[in-house]
Amino acid sequence: MAIQNVLITGATSGIGLALFEKYTNQGENVIACGRNPGKMALLESRSYKTCLFDITEPAQIAAAAQDIKELDILILNAGDCRYVDDVKNFDGELFSNIINTNLSSLGALLQYFLPKVKKGGQVVFVSSSATILPFPRSEAYGASKAGMDYLANSLRLDLLEHDIDVTLVHPGFVSTPLTDKNDFAMPFMLTSEQAASRMLIGIEKRKKYLHFPKRLTLIMKLFSVLPSFLWQSLITKNDRSSKSHTREDQV
């Protein structure tokens, strides 16, 4: 099988780093992308190429793309998660920042990297199972990932004529620097390596949609088709309990 050129955004930590490790170990030409110079330096000797840029800076993305000739797989993984803790005093700046980081940035990434994806190639969007059900405090994060879902599903239709597949990924809770900050229960949590292994298999099979762990995502999908009162009280109760424990820990 021919060596593939695989570009991964957010390759310096979490799922992105785990994917970097797996593709590198398979002997693929991995183009690792990130914004932290120190972390990128650690990957440089093992990468086919590294691209240092902030996904919210289109000019930086454009400059990095100039040195990329052809891609087999484009993995759009970089993102951020922050919560709206005081909904009555809604933080519009936080909301805008998350939408810009997780959703608006995809416009520039696709503008400059999608033309590099060759016929028969693949684009992978790393979204979140949070789009299956609404969660408290997730107005910004959930909205950004829901937008990503629509973008991926729509793009899949338009790329059919170009013979480029689109894979949408809905991970559940994965142990990463982002989830380390969470102060609530995260059932069925996977390691980044476990998540990357599931993704690798699904990407190789060119699946349109991946969701895992299924013991979590299937429960969420079941809840999503039930009357809202059956699951809303449970979700909001757990959120209130998490906030209560946090306040107690701070006393």
TrEMBL record:
Signal peptide: none annotated. Transmembrane segments: none annotated. Coiled coil: none annotated. SUPFAM superfamilies: NAD(P)-binding Rossmann-fold domains. GO terms for cellular component: membrane. GO terms for molecular function: oxidoreductase activity. Keywords: Oxidoreductase. Pfam families: adh_short. InterPro entries: NAD(P)-bd_dom_sf (IPR036291), Sc_DH/Rdtase_CS (IPR020904), SDR_fam (IPR002347). PANTHER family: DEHYDROGENASE/REDUCTASE SDR FAMILY MEMBER 7B, DEHYDROGENASE_REDUCTASE SDR FAMILY MEMBER 7B. Belongs to the short-chain dehydrogenases/reductases (SDR) family. This is Oxidoreductase, short-chain dehydrogenase/reductase family. It comes from Colwellia psychrerythraea (strain 34H / ATCC BAA-681). The lineage of its organism: Bacteria, Pseudomonadati, Pseudomonadota, Gammaproteobacteria, Alteromonadales.
